[in-house]
Amino acid sequence: MGYTLRTLGAALWAYWHATSYKEGILKIVLSGGDADTNAAVAGAILGTKFGIDPIPEEWKSGLLYASMLHNKVQEFYAMYR
């Protein structure tokens, strides 16, 4: 339970304080701890704040199945418009 609260706390901190998606993720990763888990949750939460466009292109293009993921995101987005 302790790690869950730390991860959520880190993600919410990024949401409240980051001025960009990239800044939020980098601050979470560089703060140490369980950086990959913290950044994954923060990334999801920051995505709701900033959207997909501010995510650096090199981060998106390096993803395995990037085009499939992009298409799925667009499908989900279309459901909620």
TrEMBL record:
Please provide, alphabetically and separated by semicolons, the GO molecular function terms listed in this UniProt record.
metal ion binding
Q: Look up the record and name the cofactor or cofactors this protein needs.
A: Mg(2+)
Residues annotated for Mg(2+) binding in this entry: 34, 36-37
The record lists the membrane-crossing segments as none
InterPro entries found in the cross-reference section: ADP-ribosylglycohydrolase (IPR050792), Ribosyl_crysJ1 (IPR005502), Ribosyl_crysJ1_sf (IPR036705)
> Which Pfam families does the record cross-reference, listed alphabetically?
ADP_ribosyl_GH
Keyword Magnesium (UniProt): yes
The free-text cofactor remark is: Binds 2 magnesium ions per subunit.
Supply the alphabetized keyword list: Magnesium, Metal-binding
PANTHER family in the cross-refs: ADP-RIBOSYLGLYCOHYDROLASE (PTHR16222)
Q: What is this protein called?
A: ADP-ribosylglycohydrolase family protein
